[in-house]
Write a structure and sequence with these properties.
Elements (H helix, E strand, L loop, with lengths): L12 E2 L2 E5 L12 H4 L11 E3 L2 E9 L2 E2 L5 E10 L5 E8 L16 E9 L3 E7 L22 E7 L4 E9 L14 E5 L22 E4 L4 E2 L6 E7 L3 E2 L6 E3 L5 E8 L6 E8 L4 E8 L5 E7 L5 E9 L10 E2 L3 E5 L1
Parallel strand pairs: 5-14, 17-24
Antiparallel strand pairs: 1-2, 2-9, 3-4, 4-6, 6-11, 7-10, 7-12, 8-11, 9-10, 12-13, 15-18, 16-24, 18-21, 19-20, 19-22, 22-23, 22-24
Length: 335
């Protein structure tokens, strides 16, 4: 499983335009193994959504709970065509954001889709991955937890009187999920196709859907062994991450540092560090979380002029929480 690295934060991007994904590629495969399609699925079935002769009557997902050992999530869109005609349309899949309680862009919480197939009668046409370029909060790999996953769309042709399920697999990455991670996936049945087809192709026809339909999975919950979401704050308030210019302060100004962790547990060790110049991390202070997972340290005084990054990290320790977590940096510049 790869990690999306800063400087190449893009998925399906080809010369700044949406990329048509060929069958068998990393982003989409026309066929998936029986282990993917035959899995037992769980999830709330939502109220039917009807458009002309097509009914989208619910979504499912598997597994029910994700944790540090989860490597992928399967999402399923149930579809029913009318008894009199075939249905031609496209389905757009929109992944959820990560850092739902944070302020910095860290991409999406799932990565893909890595496999797409129909469970039941019908045919899949072209699959297009939309470009997605995010600005991470840091060029330091350990501070980045999301994926640059854009929306993906696939053309679908259903024969008359068919009940078919669109099965989609997304990777969850190698990092442990946060308790506030969002694993919902939104499906939108669209009125236009995304592919281009030659004359004579069954997809070279007018789509049958006249009004978009949108339905969102509830998504699996986070449980078991998870990662630690560290939310770091300062007074005066620094700049969160690299996209913006660092907050300017004077050399004599002292900076109060505090924060909290999710899950909000007490007694956990947090290591505070700072970086300046070449980016080397230096120890600042170690502190234990208190009630509500909150922490604070001795006010920090900057050194020579330049740009400074303040970090908080969660080291390996008893308690069942994964230790591969750092905060997004808080940045200052000293004139």
């Amino acid at each position: 499983m790869r990690e999306r690295l800063p400087g190449a934060m893009r998925a399906g991007l080809q010369n700044g335009r949406p990329k048509r994904v060929p069958p068998g590629s990393r982003y989409a495969r026309r066929r998936v193994s029986s282990a993917i399609l035959a899995v037992c699925v769980v999830g709330a079935v939502l109220a039917p959504t009807t458009n002309a002769n097509l009914t989208v009557n619910g979504t499912l997902f598997s597994p029910k709970t994700v944790n540090a050992s989860t490597r992928y999530i399967l999402y399923y869109l149930q579809m029913h065509s009318s008894t009199t005609s075939e249905e031609l349309f496209s389905v757009r899949m929109t992944p959820p954001p990560i850092a739902t309680m944070g302020s910095s862009d860290q991409g999406k919480s799932i990565d893909g889709p890595t496999d797409i197939a129909l469970q039941g009668p019908g045919t899949i046409g072209d699959i297009v991955q939309s470009p997605s370029v995010i600005t991470p909060c840091s060029t330091r790999q350990s501070a980045f937890h999301g994926y640059a996953t854009g929306t993906a769309s696939v053309d679908v042709l259903l024969p008359p009187d068919s009940a078919t399920t669109l099965a989609v697999r997304y990777d969850t990455g190698r990092r442990a999920p946060w308790v506030d991670s969002d694993f919902r996936l939104t499906f939108t049945v669209q009125t236009q196709l995304v592919g281009t087809y030659p004359s004579g192709s069954p997809f070279a026809a007018t789509p049958t859907v006249t009004t978009p339909m949108t339905i969102t999975t509830t998504g699996p919950t986070v449980g078991g062994r998870t990662g630690v979401h560290i939310l770091l704050s300062t007074n005066p308030r620094g700049t969160a991450g690299t996209p913006s210019a660092p907050q300017e302060i004077s050399r004599s100004q002292r900076v109060a540092i505090s924060g909290r962790i999710l899950p909000a547990v007490a007694g956990r060790l947090i290591v505070l560090q700072w970086a300046h110049g070449d980016g080397t991390l230096h120890p600042l202070e170690e502190v234990r979380t208190g009630a509500g997972g909150r922490f604070s340290v001795t006010p920090w005084s900057p050194g020579p002029p330049g740009t400074y990054d303040l970090w908080a990290s969660y080291p390996q320790q008893p308690g069942g929480l994964a230790a591969d977590t750092t905060s997004c940096p808080v940045r200052f510049t000293v004139g």
